[in-house]
Amino acid sequence: MALTLEQLNTADAASAVQMLDGLYEHSPWIAQSALSQRPFTSLAHLKHAMVRVLEQAGVQPQLDLIRAHPELAGKAMVAKSLTAESTNEQNKAGLTQCTPEEFAHIQQLNAAYNARFGFPFILAVRGPRGTGLLKQEIIDTFARRLSNHPDFERAEALRNIHRIAEIRLNDKFGYEPTLGNDVWDWQEKLAQHSEPGYIEKGQLTVTYLTDAHRACAQRISHWMRDCGFDEVEIDAVGNVVGRYKPAQDGGKYLLTGSHYDTVRNGGKYDGRLGIFVPMACVRELHRQGKRLPFGIEVVGFAEEEGQRYKATFLGSGALIGDFKPEWLEQKDADGITMREAMQHAGLCIDDIPKIQRDAAQYLGFVEVHIEQGPVLNELDIPLGVVTSINGGVRYVCEMIGTASHAGTTPMDRRRDAALGVAELALYMEQRAAQDGDSVATIGMLQVPNGSINVVPGKCTFSMDMRAPTDTQRDAMVSDVLAKFEEIAQRRCLQTKQELAMKAAAAPSNPALQICWEKAVAALGVPVYRMPSGAGHDAMKLHEIMPQAMLFTRGLNSGISHNPLESTTSDDMQLAVDAFSHVLAQMSAQ
Question: Distance of CA 159 to CAs 186, 506, 517, Å?
């Protein structure tokens, strides 16, 4: 019989510890210490309490916990001396049915890992969905993590231990993140659509108006209808729009959504999570026969990434009247213009101006998005409330010196363009760090016609600088550009710079941000406020209406724009619950 929170909260100390036995391998002290925080308002509250106990315990207890775990497919499995929980988990992952070759390979990895780190490899083999990773996924992860820094790998082992404990706790309480699983499954199914040249390699690439892109639009639209949306359409730029009407005609709408296109060889959750979370909420309202004082409009934006054409935020831009007619003549790598691609897709270009939204008809825009960074993952916090989307500028630059013989030119006679850029890059790193939350990057760096025995005479490079406010960003940019000129003058170099992009910061609307904060707090997890370093569709909608975002934690150091991008169905469930809570708050206003 499944436990309940009420039983745990009201039990005597010894009984409560017994109820939580087996969550952490041979380490009941973690649950015992966490129980001092009773009463727990939710399982998420309890999970986070245990995370904090281990975080505060120090390095040696953490290492002792890691070393209390058995090796994957190791001696304890062969000797059948695993705990019941570990036996079940390794069996679900197929590790008890390894071929001799697989078993030998895992033993080699175990030996190499132990030699490098001094503790066993820990992986939550039941995976982000709780149903088990494939053996090859386990082996690939094992091999990849061998290259981690020891301190980072210790933290990664602890994160996996907490995930193992989360799944075991779910089992004890008979808890299933049902809506999170549905959101997970939608994303898995949508990821079946990918473009030629990528799909054969198991890679995900969906760029604007390709066959894969159009297939995604059709599938999302069908799911929206299944969820009970009253109106579903694919608009003039390929956005998938679902509208769930308010209780009374004439009511305003809450706008939400995100993009369904991807970068090349990207992840499954960037953008798409923000479509499916509100879809799950609408489906629940429809199942309950419930209408809100306002309608809900969910938009799967057709283009945000700028991969096939140079136009970015095309989908959300069209909704605010920012679709530039000159984009239609842009050509992709195959020479196909955007106009031709839109006509081939059956879109009505003449209708693009008609899809511009009247901000007066909307309460605002909210967006759920995977963080795309390491912060929440490192803190072991499932959700983050976004305070602002960073404003950014991009420059394409040149440092110009004199190419000369690398052997005969004395060091004090050189006009080395690459060294000038190297000095600038180090300054940018230091200058951004002064602010704490600014970032500055030289992402492209090239010596045209460079040779191994030639002092670089020219260096072309990019600069990307971002900050939570325009004032903070502009101050950093001013300092960097001044340093650029100072370095060039001192090193007898010349400079060129071209502003390639400038985007204003998008601070969250205070009232909508508070809604997210109240929702997160109600779930029993910490309210963590953070800026968004990445750009999002919310930036465009911010130009005409209030906006606020919620982040979900990513696995694998929060990596994004990468096949390793991942999050758990438990965290997706929390995002759905938080979104539902926001809807309830706004309905009560």
Answer: 26, 32, 24
